[in-house]
């Protein structure tokens, strides 16, 4: 049985003036990802590479769609699979929670104004 042993390096044009560089390697079951953006310097998972797995838009400079699909396959059965899937799951829930919270605040704000206007004591 042959072990996966691969490395890809590509750049991403983010919001800054110069592109960031992402390096992803899969050696055996070990998937390792490094980005040279400020978040990556603190070893934080950043959007520059998480987008590979979420499908969110990203301005990749030198990587093909085929290579992206290949990298997505590297996640399967790697030592990052469960942790990354959990992170993406909770980030999705966090986003939904923020949207629901904003919606509830808007709904409540409308009612608070209604009460203020309709109550002559206030
Ligand atoms: Zn980054």
Model description:
By secondary structure, the protein is α+β, with helices and mostly antiparallel strands. The protein folds into two domains: 1-79, no CATH class; 80-122. It contains four helices and three strands; from the N terminus they run E-E-E-H-H-H-H. It has helices at residues 38-41, 47-54, 65-75, 81-118; strands spanning 5-12, 20-27, 30-35. The protein has a three-stranded antiparallel sheet. The radius of gyration is 21 Å and the shape is elongated. It starts with a strand and ends with a helix. The site of zinc ion (ZN) has 7 residues, from helix 1.
Short description:
50% of the residues lie in helices and 18% in strands.
Mean pLDDT: 90
H-E string: EEEHHHH
The parts where pLDDT drops under 50 for at least 5 residues are none
The 3D shape can be described as elongated
Helix coverage percent: 40-55%
Radius of gyration computed on alpha carbons: 21 Å
Distance between the termini: 77 Å
| SS-derived structural category | alpha+beta
Described by strand count, sense and barrel closure, the largest sheet is:
3 strands, antiparallel
Number of domains: 2
* Strand residue percentage: 15-25%
Unique bound compounds = zinc ion
Give the beta-strand count. 3
Q: How many helical stretches?
A: 4
Query: How are the strands ordered across the major sheet?
Result: 1-2-3
């Amino acid at each position: 049985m042959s072990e996966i042993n691969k490395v890809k390096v590509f750049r991403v044009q983010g919001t800054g003036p110069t592109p960031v560089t992402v390096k992803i390697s899969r050696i055996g079951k070990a998937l390792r990802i490094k980005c040279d953006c400020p978040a990556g310097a603190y070893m934080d998972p950043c959007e520059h590479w998480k987008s590979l797995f979420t499908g969110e838009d990203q301005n990749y400079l030198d990587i093909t769609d085929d290579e992206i699909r290949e990298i997505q396959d590297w996640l399967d059965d790697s030592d990052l699979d469960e942790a990354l899937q959990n992170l993406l799951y909770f980030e999705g829930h966090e986003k939904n929670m923020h949207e629901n919270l904003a919606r509830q605040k808007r709904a409540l704000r409308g009612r608070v104004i209604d009460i203020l206007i309709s109550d002559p004591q206030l």
